[in-house]
Every structure is written in structure tokens, then in C-alpha cells.
């Protein structure tokens, strides 16, 4: 209930002129895949605003456009039409390198299949976004060490991903997502490849991050997981069909 | 500058991770370079030796023997045998302006040539001082060829083929020593420098003992020439020289200048044309093998690079999701191909040069004719550089294009790639 109030309070603050811009601000967003013979309209006019410190679940059956939406939210793909402002920056017109910089500074990804680079150590995986950012050696060392402590894997830093369990790998991935202090953390079925107990651990970690004030968007088809967030956005056939706070009472 | 530093750091990390693959690529480039370098080095050595060997007999010379007439002429019947006399050569010198050099030659086989307790049966030749230059018989340092004074004074001096010298003297100095030719003492004035001779009409020069023509006539009592060797002032004048020989000798010995059977001639220029064509053939053949080798090497290198980059499309997608710009993916790849090319090419050239030098060492210690004939393999930096650049370039392109495609699509697509 407490969380609920907090969110409402922020919603009230939205009107104030000094308030920060929304993290996600999508207007009339469409995405069409042109496969030559047929055109598939994956997103058909999305209006979505996510404020700082929100913890949002995007749910929907497969083929509803979840992944497409996630890709565009994470600047891994560009919309065909409409406007998308990420943390106040319009990204629809950016080129590949500018999008890369945006992702580097503003988005942290957590994938279902972890997507750690297998040949380098966990430490080097987490260091990678900092290298791309241009952080100095000392800053990288301190930041990476601190991140590993946060996810509770300080003793596993020098291991290769293949030497870690699924839950540990996902923790490394979360540490990597947090490396450049992103405005938004995007997680795509983060517990999909984990057993129940590891999945619970990861979900708790996300809850802690939300408590600390991170903005999180979680994509899942798991209703139980979705209910642990604070807001559920339901997609169907490329449109948002439901958007509302999680009812804790239920 | 930070960006170059980053590219370098990423390259070093990749190099560390992919030691095995990079070693394989280095080996492929090194092997290709080595093959081509050796192939063409040996080819060049063989070709040079071949053309030097064909000149070993003498350059642009015509050897002329008396024949027998094929046409009845001026009251003489067909089938008359001709002979050459010592006075013929001065006659030719006086009457043919195209004649550059000429030497009469007389040969007798089966002479006792002795030094100390060693005796061998060798052919001896009486020749003029011009013979050395005509027949490419160059004295070793410390000795000289026959000269005008030897000829004029009928000196008892001998110029030895290098094989004769080795048989008689071994490794000892021969110049200044006295040998016996059919029991008559001769002073050795020179030894022929070793040469590669591919054509011969009276045995190999290394087995001959030469003496002044006048001395030869005095000790043998012979008056007829075996043949004479001539050379035109320039190679282009050789056909005219040959025609003039028929005119002048036909006038003297009364045969028809059109009678081709009256004089037998060996025009080495004709032979050399064949040699040049064979050399060209060798070159084309080696070039083809070289091109095929290069193709195989290129396919190998391309295959490694292509497979790896293709395999990594998803990882490239991950890096881009982390915020890698295109240059952070492509840059290390460029550095990598430069590195692989330089190292692989360097190793290939180093080993190639090593093998070439080793062979030269073996050659200098061995008397094997086959090895000598292989000649000195000649390393060509141009060929090596071309090979290295080509292999490196192929590898680079094979890796660069898939990588460029991977970074040119939206990362969402690269991440979906399995």
C-alpha cells in the first residue's frame, strides 16, 4: 500500500513545471515490418508514459507486440511512425551510433538468455559498457567492484559466465545493466530461463532496485511476476488494452 | 584518442580470447606466403640458371664446321668434302666487316695429360686468344687465358678446364705448375672458372686442356681446322655474317654460296630463343601454380574470418546493446587483420628466406649436379609483399563485410540472429 501511495504522489507531481521529464514518452507509435510480400503491423499506435521511479510490467500473449515494444523502448530498433522521447531525448531520428550512445548512457538491458559474452570473465562483461562509455581505468575498477558487491557476487568476478549458475549469470547481467547508471532498466523475461528459486531471487533484486529509485520496465507473460510490480500494461494485437496500478489487495 | 585506445584495448582482449583462431589464421597466411615465396624463388633461380647455362657455351656465337658440297659447282662434282685451313680465319677477318670475333679451333682426343703420378686421357684443343671470350671461358683469379704472345711464340702453356684441374691437382694451386701432355712439359697459366654449360659440341669445357693454336699445330703436325667459332659485331648482324661466310668461303673453296650443305653451322642465338621460350614457359607454369596456391590460401583465410564473424553476429548485437558504436566492433577487426597479416606474412617470409639460405649452404658444401642446376633460389620481396597483402586483404574483406552487415542493422535484428 505504501508503494501505491508513493506512485500516486509522483503522479501528482507530474503537473509541476520543475518536475523531471518522463523516462518513456511514446506518442502515436507504430512499427511496421515490411517482409516484402506482406506488411506486418506489430505496433498500431502506442501511447505510453512511464515516469521516473516507476516499476512497470508489460504483459500480453505472444505475438502481441511485447518484444517489438521492448526493442523500441530500449532503442534496439526504431519506430516506423510516431514520437518516442527517452528521458527527454527524441530518439526516432537518431542514427546507429547516436542510438548506441543513448543505449550506453540511458538503458540497461537484462535478457532472458543473459547474453553475456562467453569468452570473457564476468568482470570484463560488466566492464564492457563502461569501456564504451569511455570511463577511465580507476573509475571502471571501482564501479565494477561495487556492482559485484551489490549483486552479491564479489567472489565470482573472475569466473567465465560458463562457470556460473543461471541465477549467477543473471545477476552478472543485472550488474552490467546498472554499470552506466542508466535512467531505465529493461528486463525481457528475466526469470524465463531460471528455476523457481533463482527466479525469486532475481525478482527480489528487481524489487530492491525499484525501492532504491530505479525505473524498471519488465516484460513477462507470467501474471504472478507482473503482480509484483506496481503497474501493469497489457498489450494485445499491437495496442495497449489495459494500463493500471497493481491491486495489492487482490 | 580515447577512441583509438578503446579500439586497441578491445583488439587486445579479442586477441587474448581468440588465440587459437588467430594462430590458425597466422598459420594460413604464413603457409601461403611461404609456399609462394619458395615456389617463385626456386622458379626464378631455375630460370636464371637455365638462361645462364644456355649462355655457358658462349653468347651469340656461331660454330662452323666444314661440310660436303650438295651442289655441283664450277666444274667440281657434288659430294666433295671441304676442309678448313688456319689461313681461313685471317681471311674472314679481312673480308667480313660484320665479323666481331673469330677463333680457329683444333681438337685431338685421347692425350696423356699427367701431373706427378696422375695421368688422365683428355682432349686437347688448339685455340686463339679470342676463344676465351667467345666461349665464355673465364680464368679463375690468379690465372689468365691464352694471349697473343703465347700464340706468336708457340709457348708451351696450358689453360685447364676446372674438372681437369681438380683431377690433377685436387685443391692445390695449379697455375705455375708444369704438367706433361704426351710427355711434353706445359706450364699451367690458368684454370677455367666453374660455369654451368648446357650445350656442347665436343665434350664439356671443364674436361678440356687448351693451348695456343700454333703450339697445337707444332706438337701434332696437323694443318686442318676442326672448326671455327665466330661472333657478329651485334646479334642483329648474325644472319648477314652467316651469309657472308658462305660467300667468302664459297669463293675460296669453290662452292655455291647457296649450297647449304657446304658449311654446317650451329647458331646458338637460335638455341637461345628456344631457351628463352622455355624460361617463359616455366614462368607461366609457376605463375599458374602460384595463383592457385594463393587462391587456396585465400579461401582458407577467408573461411576462418568469415565463419568467425558470422558466428558472432549475436555477440555483436549484445555489444551494440551495451552501447558499442559501429567503430568499436569494426575497429578491432581492422587492427586484427593488420596484425594477422603482418605476423603471418613476416613468419612466411622469414621461413622462406631461411629455407633459401639453408639450400644455398647445402649447395656450397655439395657437388651434386642436380643441386647445382637448381641454381640459387632468388627471393623476390615484391612477390612476397604482394602475396602477404593479397592474403591479408582477402582475410580482412571476408571478416569485414559480415561484421559491417551485423553492425549496420538495428541491434534488435542482430540479437535475434542464431
Give the N-to-C terminal Cα separation of chain A: 12 Å
Tell me how many strands of chain A there are: 10
Name given to the CATH homologous superfamily of chain A: P-loop containing nucleotide triphosphate hydrolases
Number of alpha- plus pi-helical segments of chain A: 8
- Number of extended strands of chain B: 9
- Order of helices and strands of chain B, N to C? HHEHEEHHEHEEEHEHEHHHHHH
Query: Judging from the principal axes of the Cα atoms, what is the shape of chain B?
Result: elongated
Q: Spatial order of the strands in the main sheet of chain B?
A: 2-3-7-4-6-5
Task: Please write the string of helix (H) and strand (E) elements of chain A.
Answer: HEEEHEEHEHHHEHEHEE
The major beta sheet of chain B can be summarized as: 6 strands, mixed, barrel
Report helical residue fraction of chain A: 25-40%
**Classification by helices and strands of chain A:** alpha/beta
Mean pLDDT figure of chain B: 88
Q: What is the CATH architecture descriptor of chain A? A: 3-Layer(aba) Sandwich
Description:
- The complex is a heterodimer of chains A (250) and B (418).
- Chain A has 250 residues and is α/β, with parallel strands linked by helices.
- Chain A has one domain (2-245): P-loop containing nucleotide triphosphate hydrolases (Rossmann fold, 3-Layer(aba) Sandwich).
- Chain A is 36% helix and 25% strand.
- Chain A has helices at 2-13, 66-73, 96-106, 122-133, 137-150, 166-178, 196-211, 223-226; strands at residues 24-34, 39-50, 55-59, 81-86, 89-90, 107-110, 184-188, 216-219, 231-236, 239-245.
- In chain A, the strands form two sheets. In chain A, strands 6-7-8-3-9-10 form a six-stranded mixed beta sheet, sandwiched between helices. A four-stranded antiparallel beta sheet of chain A has the order 2-1-4-5, covered by helices on one side.
- In chain A, a hairpin with a 4-residue loop joins strand 1 and strand 2.
- In chain A, helix 4 (122-133) packs parallel to helix 6 and helix 5 crosses helix 6 (166-178).
- By secondary structure, chain B is α+β, with helices and mostly antiparallel strands.
- Chain B folds into two domains: 2-55 and 273-416, no CATH class; 61-266, no CATH class.
- Chain B is built from 14 helices and nine strands.
- In chain B, a hairpin with a 2-residue loop joins strand 2 (99-115) and strand 3.
- In chain B, helix 1 crosses helix 11, helix 2 runs antiparallel to helix 9 (268-311) and helix 2 (19-55) runs antiparallel to helix 13 (381-408).
- Chain B is elongated.
- The two termini of chain B are 35 Å apart.
- Classes of the chains: A alpha/beta (250), B alpha+beta (418).
- Chain A binds chain B through residues 71, 74, 76-78, 96-97, 100-105, 109, 111, 115-117, 119-120, 124, 128-129, 131-134, 176, 180, and chain B through 2-3, 6, 9-10, 13, 17-18, 314-315, 318-328, 407-408, 410-413, 415.
